[in-house]
Amino acid sequence: MKGIVFTEFLDLVEQKFGLEMVDKIITQSELASQGIYTSVGTYRFSEMLSLLQNLKNNTGIAIDDLLLAYGEHFFSVIENSYPGLLNTYKDPIEMISSIENHIHVEVRKIYPDAELPTFFVESKTENTLVMIYTSSRAMHHFGLGLMNKTFEHFNTKATISLEKIKEDGTEVKFIITKD
Question: Residues in domain Heme NO-binding (predicted)?
């Protein structure tokens, strides 16, 4: 997993819970990296799981809710670092439906060895989108947070629901309808 995912996660933890919480979850997680991340480095996904689990244990907030908040936070990173990418689109459905064929292509230019989830567009109209998310990492609520902020960015409201195709969350169907 790319280091930017870790550095931004720890930034969010610091913003929401303080520097002491960052130190606490790093210490509790007994990380091979010792919690020292660079945005371009590559680290084990197990470290993110450990950080999330310890944050959950210390805050009582469910991991899915933590990932949702993190996805919403991460959208601001995209907004600030890659405004040209967002300006390419005029509509949130169009942007979200292009994750696989455009956005992930751009991510791979920056992080060639990034292990990204796949998004298969099952159906798409002007106001609806049904996509299948597949990832060994079961971070679909992170994706949901990014989608929520995408609609907010375009000043558009939508209902986004998800159905787990596989109980472990490695395959999920997103059903998006503009309100």
Answer: 2-161
Write the pLDDT tens digit of every residue in 69-92. 999 999 999 899 888 888 899 999
Do 126 and 56 share a structural domain? no
Distance set, CA 18 to CA 14, 49, 119 (Å): 4, 20, 34
Structural domain that includes position 56: 3-61
User: Residue 113: pLDDT band by 50, 70, 90 thresholds?
Assistant: confident
Angle at 77 between CA 133 and CA 102, to 5 degrees: 45
Choose the final residue of a domain: 61, 90, 107.
Answer: 61
Q: Are residues 47 and 126 in the same domain?
A: no
Assign residue 160 the CATH number of its domain: 3.90.1520.10
Domain membership of residue 125 (yes or no) is: yes
Q: How many domains does the chain have?
A: 2
* CA–CA distance, 150 with 146 (Å, rounded to integer): 6
The SS3 assignment for 156 reads: coil
158 burial via Cβ count (<10 Å: 0-12, 13-18, 19+): buried
Angle 148-140-125 (CA atoms, 0-180°, nearest 5)? Answer: 55
User: Residue 103: pLDDT above 90?
Assistant: no
> Could you tell me the pTM of the whole model?
0.92
